[in-house]
Structure of AMP-binding protein:
Amino acid sequence: MENHMTEGFRLSPQQKHLWFLGKNHSSSPYKVQYSILMQGTVDHQRLEKALKRMIQQNHILRTSFVQMPGMNFPVQVIQEPGEVSITCHDLTKESQAEQQRYTRSLFEEMLNKPYSLAEMPSIQAVWLKLSATEQILILGSSSMYLDNDYSSLLTQLRDSYDQIESDHEPLQYVMISEWFNDLLVDPEADMGREYWEDKEISKLNLQSFEKTFICNDPWQSCHPEHIFLSLDESQLRKLENIAREKKVSEQALFLTCWYTLLHRITEQGLVTVGTLCDPREDEELRGVIGPLARYVPFTHTLQHESFQDLLLKLNRRLCEMTEYHECFSWDHMETEERCFSFGFDFQDRTQWASGSEITFSLLNQYHWLDYFKIKLSGVRDHHGFTLEFHYDAQWFDQAAVTQLADYYMTLLEKALSNPKLPVDQLDILNEVEKKKSLQVFNQTEANFRLEAGLHQIFEEQVKKTPNNIAVQFEDQHLTYAELNHQANQYARYLEREGVGPETVVGICLERSLEMVITMLAVLKAGGAYLPLDKDYPEARLAFIIKDARLSLLITTRECLPNDLDLEPEVHILYLEEQKSILLEDKTDIQRPVSENQSAYVIYTSGSTGLPKGVIIPHRALCNHMLWMQDKFPLGVDDKVLHKTSFSFDASIWEIFAPLLAGAALVIAKPKGQLDPEYLIETIQQKQITVLQVVPTQ
């Protein structure tokens, strides 16, 4: 039996990473494509021979990837180049607009074609003839063969076309691949490996921009899309001036703005951006064709610093990263996801290669060398600077990325105009966005009489639905008329107790009919109620009562702790002992209400210090309630369950929304919100139609 030996070489760390990513994406987006302008009279057959010669000279371009039995990763196997052909398209009779349209369409069409990693040729080539002296060559391949380095490609293509013999054998990619692999275990590279092991990769999302997924696992597919923007002349001059003045690179400027924007949107200090490094900066590797460039984690914790201080820091960090990037390995990082959420790269596309007859220059380029949700590419070309926002359409739609790009351009303009500003003070909203935020998105006005208080809107509803059930608690209920009458009686009693406009009245009651009656009564008497949860710690209750300078507290002996330390001037009104209330007049109190008159007071949690009281006027309360009714309307057939502590702001809607709409307010028993079975039973038995919950419920 004849044995066939296969000579193979290990994948480089970058190829290994790409192979891992490709296995996790059903349609691999990891491709490289160049659109090259050729000026001069091009001979088609000579161009084909030049391309074949370049492939013959660079072993990586005639390498297949063979999966051996028992191995997790394939090996690189160098093959014969095979036949090389260039498809021709003659566009000389088409208009310039049609030529541009056709070129763009063909570029996109080629990007959608799959590449075989097991068969030759490794490169697809298309030639578009625009005129006798102007042609476009589109070259495409897998990212396992090429990266974003177009300069080496142009130079070698020129030399091959001119049949220029090199003085030395080209350095082959497999040799560099072996060196990269050895470096990851070389004791002399310990310092470089330690540099990366100290880096923490943040897992951040742009939740307000990202899509809600329809697919079960968005990581299984990837759909790259992009948009681009150009800097104007004014921005270009400012950028060049700051780079020259601060002695930083243009790359650092774009990266600092990207960092700042991600920090502002995610509201996180530590931000990680996968940033492209190219080892061709080493003179020994200059001109080598193959996937040398790769993205490494660029991490920094933003503090309260000015933009220019951050710029100088990140410029230094870029230099550090460049020194150690060859020692980076995902195997050394404590993370399950071997990819970045955010990416950044910068490229100078102004280089060209001029031969004896043909000048080669780059028109357009696509490179997807790693996975990102979204990546910013800064590009210097012959027209200035272009910003390309590349994104996975599985995560973002175009409108969201366009908005993000607008934020970036606004921040860039502000940073270039005033680099001494702290990063947290740089605007990201342009004037149009500010106007939209203030005038369009803030359309919360509702039509109501300025002189009307919340209780007066309730009284108008009573006239419309006097016999409808207004409130239910356990086996008890009150109609709208009955609720209004009892609240009127109680309000008149409170008036004699000294309650009037701007009087703050504490209410410490459990959920019940009496709680709702008391809240309405305080409003009708002209006062503002302060809800006090009986389950508050005694220290919090005592603090709030003292801080609010209460002179009247309505409660029951069961609700109020006996040993609560209260000031002598606080008058306690025990509800169960006030029988004379039933003798009061039931008619509405004709008292005018100022739009700025206080309706209720609510206290913060005090998680960042002492609890603070916030006064809510009738105008704000009425505006909110009527806006809610307009956007989320309730009808007379609705039943709303009230289960939130009335000391929480969220309870306001639960209690008053149904009472302003003719609906029924159904009150859950005290602590009932903690019993899921009770809530389910109540919802079913009481036929609840509207329930307010938080996502965790």
